[in-house]
Design goal:
4 strands; about 0% strand; Amino acid/polyamine transporter I; mainly alpha; two-stranded antiparallel ribbon
Length: about 525
C-alpha cells in the first residue's frame, strides 16, 4: 500500500472528470518508479511484448490453413478490433491512469466482480503466453546454435524433453530476474532486440519479394489486391478462426498502458505509445505476410505456407530458402531475440495487474509488495515466474497436446478481457458522450463496436471449440479447447467467490467505490 498515506485516506474523483494524476495513478501511489519511461520506451515495450517475429513464425502457417491467400486480409481485419479497443484504453487511461488497466476500469464501470474476472483473464492469458514464449525461445535457441556450428546434434538437443524443460525453466528464471530489476535497468537491451527484429523482418521481406518477382521459384505466386479483401474468405467459421489467430498476434500492445504509473505524462503518453505500436505491428505483419506468400505460395507441400509439417514454425522452413547460408542464422536469431525480449516484458502486465488488485484488496496483500530499491512489484513478478514454470512443465509432462490446446484457448481469454475493457469504456463515459462528436466517437461508438466484434469472435470460437475436431481431442464428447477455455473461466469465478468470503471489502465496494471512484489506502 502507499507508503506515508494516512490510514483510511481516500483518493477520490468524479467519474468522467478526473484530473491527470501524474505518476501516482488512479489508486494512489503504489510505490512504482514514476517518470522512468518515455514515449520511445513505451513504444518499444509495446512492440517487444507482442513479439512480432515469434508471432509470425507461429501463425503464418495456421492462418493460411484457415483462410488461404486471404491471410493478409485477416491480419488487417484483426487490426480493426484491436484499434477500436486501443481507443478505449487510451481514453480510460487519460481519465484514470492506473496500472491495473482492465481490472480497475472494468471494476469502476461494472462493479468489483466483473473487474476481478477481467483481471483474471489477463493474468491467465499472460501466464500461458509466457510459457509458450519460453518454449519457442528454447526451440529456436538450439536451431540457431546448430545453424551457427553446422552441428545437427546440437540442433536436435531440443528434442530431448529433459534438456528442453531445463532450458525453458532457466529462461523463465532469467526473464523473471530481469523483470524484477525493472525495465530501466535493461532498456538498451530491449531497444537492441526490438531493432534487430524489425530489421530482420525488413530484410527477409525485401529478399523474398525480390526473388519471387525475378521468377524461377516453383511455389511462388504473384501478388493480387484480392489478398487484402476479407470478404473473399470462404466461410464465416474460417474467417473467425483466422481472426482469432490474428487477434493473438496483436496481443500485448496494452503493456504500454500497464506502465502508465511509471511513464512520463502518464495520462497521454501510454495511449500515444499504444497507437504507434499498433501501426508498427500491422505494417510489419502485412509486409511479411505478402512477402512470404509471394515467395512460398500457400501449397501443402515443400516450402508452401499450408504445409502441415512446417505450419507451426514457418521461419525455420523458409530461413535458408530465402536468406541462404550463412545469413539464415539471422532469422533464427531474430526469433530467439523476439521470444527472449517478450519473455521479459510480458511479466509487466501480469505483475502490475496483481499489484493493483492487491492495492484494492482483491488479492492477498503480498502481491502488493514493491521492492524498495528497484521499485518493481517484486513478489508478483516472482509469483508469475513460478506459475509460468510450473504450468509449462506440468502441462508438458501430461501431454504436448494439452499445451497446444491451452494455447488455442488463449484467444478466448484475450477476447474476454479486451471486450470487457471496451464495454467498460462506453459505459464509464456514458454521461459525457454528448459533450462533443469526438467523445461520442472515441469514447462510445469505437469502443462499443470493438467490444461487439471481440464478443462475436469469442462466441464463434466457443461454438467451434465445442466440436471434438477443434484441438487434439475431446472430453465426454466436448472439444478439449472448449473444456480448457471454459474451465479456466470457471476456475477464476470459483477463486473469486472463495476470496470474496475471506476478504470481502473489495467485493462489497468498500475499496473501490463506483460513485466516488475512491480507493481507501492503508499504510
Amino acid at each position: 500500500m502507499a507508503p506515508g498515506a494516512p490510514q483510511g485516506a481516500p483518493v477520490s474523483g468524479t467519474s468522467g472528470e478526473l484530473p491527470d494524476r501524474g505518476t501516482a495513478g488512479g489508486a494512489g501511489d503504489k510505490g512504482l518508479r514514476g517518470g522512468s519511461v518515455g514515449l520511445l520506451g513505451s513504444v518499444v515495450l509495446g512492440v517487444s511484448t507482442v513479439a512480432p517475429v515469434y508471432c509470425l513464425t507461429a501463425t503464418l502457417g495456421p492462418t493460411v490453413t484457415a483462410v488461404g491467400v486471404q491471410m493478409p486480409a485477416v491480419f488487417l481485419a484483426g487490426f480493426l478490433p484491436m484499434l477500436l479497443v486501443a481507443f478505449a484504453y487510451k481514453e480510460l487511461n487519460k481519465d484514470f491512469p492506473d496500472c491495473g488497466t482492465s481490472f480497475t476500469w472494468a471494476a469502476r464501470a461494472f462493479g468489483p466482480r466483473v473487474g476481478w474476472m477481467a483481471g483474471w483473464g489477463l493474468t491467465v492469458a499472460t501466464i500461458v503466453v509466457l510459457s509458450n514464449l519460453a518454449g519457442v525461445a528454447t526451440e529456436f535457441l538450439y536451431l540457431m546454435l546448430g545453424e551457427m556450428t553446422g552441428s545437427g546434434w546440437i540442433a536436435e538437443l531440443d528434442q530431448d524433453k529433459a534438456v528442453h524443460l531445463l532450458t525453458v525453466v532457466l529462461l523463465i528464471a532469467g526473464a523473471t530476474a530481469m523483470s524484477y530489476r525493472g525495465m530501466t535497468a535493461t532498456k538498451w537491451f530491449q531497444y537492441g532486440l526490438v531493432g534487430l527484429q524489425l530489421a530482420v523482418l525488413l530484410l527477409f521481406s525485401g529478399i523474398a519479394v525480390g526473388r519471387a518477382v525475378s521468377g524461377g521459384l516453383p511455389d511462388s505466386i504473384g501478388f493480387s489486391p484480392s489478398w487484402l479483401d476479407p470478404l473473399q474468405v470462404g466461410s464465416f467459421s474460417a474467417f473467425t478462426a483466422g481472426l482469432s489467430l490474428s487477434i493473438f498476434m496483436y496481443w500485448g500492445w496494452d503493456t504500454c498502458l500497464t506502465m502508465n504509473e511509471e511513464t512520463l505524462g502518464s495520462a497521454r503518453t501510454p495511449g500515444r505509445a499504444a497507437m504507434i505500436s499498433m501501426v508498427t505491428l500491422v505494417g510489419s505483419y502485412l509486409l511479411v505476410a505478402v512477402a512470404a506468400q509471394m515467395f512460398a505460395g500457400v501449397g501443402t507441400t515443400g516450402t508452401g505456407l499450408g504445409n502441415p509439417a512446417t505450419a507451426d514454425n514457418v521461419f525455420a522452413a523458409l530461413a535458408r530458402p530465402v536468406l541462404g547460408s550463412p545469413w539464415s542464422v539471422l532469422l533464427f536469431l531474430a526469433v530467439v531475440a523476439s521470444a527472449a525480449a517478450s519473455l521479459q516484458t510480458t511479466f509487466i502486465p501480469v505483475a502490475r495487474t496483481l499489484l493493483a488488485m492487491s492495492a484494492y484488496r482483491a488479492v492477498p496483500p503480498r502481491f502488493g509488495t514493491v521492492h524498495p530499491r528497484f521499485r518493481t512489484p517484486g513478489y508478483a513478478t516472482v509469483a508469475a515466474g513460478v506459475a509460468t514454470a510450473v504450468f509449462y512443465v506440468g502441462m508438458s509432462l501430461i501431454s504436448e497436446n494439452v499445451v497446444q490446446d491451452t494455447i488455442l484457448a488463449l484467444g478466448l481469454m484475450i477476447c474476454f478481457y479486451y471486450a470487457l475493457t471496451a464495454f467498460a469504456c462506453a459505459w464509464y463515459f456514458r454521461r459525457t458522450l454528448r459533450t462533443s462528436p469526438r467523445d461520442l466517437l472515441l469514447r462510445g461508438i469505437a469502443p462499443l463496436l470493438g467490444g461487439v466484434l471481440l464478443t462475436a469472435v469469442f462466441l464463434q470460437t466457443l461454438t467451434d471449440a465445442w466440436s471434438p475436431d477443434y484441438g487434439s481431442g475431446a472430453v465426454l464428447g466436448i472439444g478439449s479447447v472448449f473444456v480448457i477455455g471454459v474451465g479456466i473461466l470457471l476456475l477464476g469465478a470459483a477463486l473469486m467467490t472463495w476470496y470474496g468470503r475471506v476478504r470481502p471489502e473489495f467485493f462489497r465496494g468498500e475499496t473501490l467505490r463506483e460513485d466516488a471512484s475512491a480507493l481507501v489506502v492503508e499504510d
